[in-house]
Amino acid sequence: MNFSQRYVALGDSFTEGVGDWDPASPNGVRGWADRVAEQLVLADRSWGYANLAIRGKKMRQILDEQIDGALALEPTLVTLYAGANDILRPRVDIDRLMGHYDEGIGRLREAGAAVVLFTGFDASGSAVFGTTRGRTAVYNEWVREIADTRGATVVDYWRLREFQDWSYWDVDRMHMSTAGHTLMAARVLEAMEASHAIDLPELEARPVLRRVEQLKADAQWAREYLTPWVGRRLRGVSSGDDLAPKYPVPVHPHWASVPA
Q1: Are 248 and 66 in contact (CB under 8 A)?
Q2: Looking at residue 51, what is its pLDDT?
Q3: Strand partners, 81
Q4: What is the pLDDT of residue 57?
Q5: CA distance 34 to 182
Q6: Nearest-CA neighbor of 51 among 167, 197, 181, 200?
Q7: Do the beta carbons of residue 76 and residue 29 sit within 8 Å?
Q8: Long-range pairs for 185-193 at CB < 8 Å and ≥24 separation?
Q9: Distance between CA atoms of 67 and 80, rounded to whole angstroms?
Q10: pLDDT tens string 149-179
Q11: pLDDT for 7
Q12: CA 115/CA 108 separation, integer angstroms
C-alpha cells in the first residue's frame, strides 16, 4: 500500500512493545507505538506504520541498523528511544554516545521527518536499577539539548510520575505492562498535540505484602528474571538476536483495519 504519511518507530524493547503481550501481533507483542499508530490511522487513513525496533539493542546498533532503514521509508514521523541498554552496562561513555545520537537525529530531521524523543525513566523505586539514576539524569540533559537544537519533541518519561506505580509494569519489573503501554501511548500523542480516543486503564489495587512476603517475591523475581537477564549480558547475547522487525514496511496492521 502507498501512504502519503508514514510513521516509523525505532528503538529497543520499549518501542517493540515488550510487556504488552499479544499472541496475535508480530513477535508476540503490541506496545505503545502500535497504539499510537492505531490512533493516527483511525483519524486519517493516509497514515502507514512501520516498527523497526528490536528488544535488547544498544544505541549504536539502533543507529547503525535502523536509521538507514527508516530513511528509506521516507518517514513523516519518527519516534526514537535508544540508550537504556547502554546505561545498564558496567561502563558507558554517555557523552560520546550522545554525540552519535545527535548525528542520527540530525539525519532524520534533515530528511524532513518530525522526530519524537524520550528521556529515560527515573528508576529510583528500584533497588537494582536505581543505581543508574545518575547516568540517566546526564542522558536526559543530552536528550533535552539535542531536542532543542534539532527541533524535536520530547516525551519526558522521567517526569511522568504515574509510572512510579508498579501496576504499570510487567512481572519482570523491567518493561511496562499493557496498562503502562496504553498510558504511554496517550502521553506520546499528547506530547505531539494529537487527539486520541485511548481509554486509560483502571488499575487493580495490589495487596500490601508483609516484609517476609516481599523478600520471597523479590527472591523469586531475581531467580526468574534478573539472573537470566544478567546471564545474557555476560554471554554477550540478547533476547532479540533472532528476531526481525515487527513491521519492516508501512502497513495498516490488523488492529487498525477499520472501514475507510
Answers
A1: no
A2: 98
A3: 11
A4: 95
A5: 10
A6: 181
A7: no
A8: 185/32, 185/33, 185/35, 185/36, 185/39, 187/155, 187/160, 188/32, 188/36, 188/79, 188/116, 188/155, 189/36, 189/39, 191/116, 191/153, 191/154, 191/155, 192/116, 192/153
A9: 10
A10: 999 999 999 999 999 998 999 888 789 999 9
A11: 98
A12: 7
Measured from the Cβ of residue 172, the count of other Cβ atoms closer than 10 Å reads: 15
What's the CATH number for 5-204+245-256? 3.40.50.1110
**Alpha carbon distance 134, 125 (integer Å):** 14
R_g of the chain computed on alpha carbons: 18
How far is 189 from 37, CA to CA, in rounded Å?
10
Render the chain in DSSP notation, one character per residue. ---SEEEEEEESHHHHTTTSB-TTSGGGB--HHHHHHHHHHHH-TTEEEEE---TT--HHHHHHHHHHHHHHT--SEEEEE--HHHHTSS---HHHHHHHHHHHHHHHHHTT-EEEEEPPP--TT-TTGGGGHHHHHHHHHHHHHHHHHHT-EEE-GGG-GGGGSGGGB-TTSSSB-HHHHHHHHHHHHHHTT------PPPPPPPPPPPHHHHHHHHHHHIIIIIHHHHHHHHHT--TTTT---SEEEEE--GGG----
In this structure, the number of other CB atoms found within 10 A of the CB of residue 11 comes to 25
C-alpha distance from residue 63 to each of 42, 60, 102, 153 (Å): 30, 5, 10, 18
Nearest to 33 by CA among 159, 118, 146, 138: 118
Q: What is the grid cell recorded at 220?
A: 523469586
